[in-house]
What we know:
The structure holds two protein chains of two kinds.
Chain A: E1 2-3, H1 10-22, E2 25-31, E3 34-39, E4 47-52, H2 57-69, E5 72-76, E6 82-88, H3 101-131, H4 157-205
Antiparallel strand pairs in A: 1-3, 2-3, 4-6, 5-6
Chain B: H1 11-19, E1 24-25, H2 26-36, H3 45-57, E2 61-64, E3 73-76, H4 78-100
Antiparallel strand pairs in B: 1-3, 2-3
Helix pairs in contact in B: 1-2
Amino acid sequence: xxxxxxxxxxxxxxxxxxxxxxxxxxxxxxxxxxxxxxxxxxxxxxxxxxxxxxxxxxxxxxxxxxxxxxxxxxxxxxxxxxxxxxxxxxxxxxxxxxxxxxxxxxxxxxxxxxxxxxxxxxxxxxxxxxxxxxxxxxxxxxxxxxxxxxxxxxxxxxxxxxxxxxxxxxxxxxxxxxxxxxxxxxxxxxxxxxxxxxxxxxxxxxxxxx
Amino acid sequence: xxxxxxxxxxxxxxxxxxxxxxxxxxxxxxxxxxxxxxxxxxxxxxxxxxxxxxxxxxxxxxxxxxxxxxxxxxxxxxxxxxxxxxxxxxxxxxxxxxxxxxxx
Lengths: 210, 104
């Protein structure tokens, strides 16, 4: 079974997946399009999410073994997926995968730097599109620039209306496609900021000694 | 004298380094830390993994070759031993001066 959902808050996602497991839906795979579940008998378990990338398969294996040894089954995630999903297998054991505030918060810091690097990776593309003239940022102030027909604005009457209406759908598509990349970059920056805020909230908001 | 910038170590880091005077893999470290601290310090998997990563980066521990291809085995380095000794001296000093100031 597939379900779609987007959440920036890992704790909400953990709660939702734990609830799903209680209803008999166990996460089997997570892709950019959503979550895939196995149908299983309802389980009273806990799902936890870590956020990590791995450079070498051996590191990934070692990481999963550490969790396995301490009562957590790795159910979804790959070396490069970032989000790593764990299901509690040990009835008696810990219900948390982090035992101090600093490491709990650090998970959001890693998430935040991913979003930021995504934004930074797209910036050079955006800049080169603007410099090469493929995208004209002025067009968002002067929509006239979205029309390419030579001499369009000097035409009058019926011939103007014909040419204008003919090109309008193309101009709109041009505008929308030019907007895609800047919107994407802004979204990435917003996600980075949100994760960074969660990092700070956890780091400073809860007890952690002096 | 200027103090080493890595001092003081956190309780968890201190116990991890102490546990790694003998080579051990992740879960063994968790058990050893719990035992050494009389059950006071219980680390969760995600926290331990992050701590090991930091200690590796600072060259306080290193991984060693073993027969177990799935689990990495770590051991303390000379640099790690040095910092552990420094922190131990720091705490010995605190323990030494405390009764002298009148606290029993």
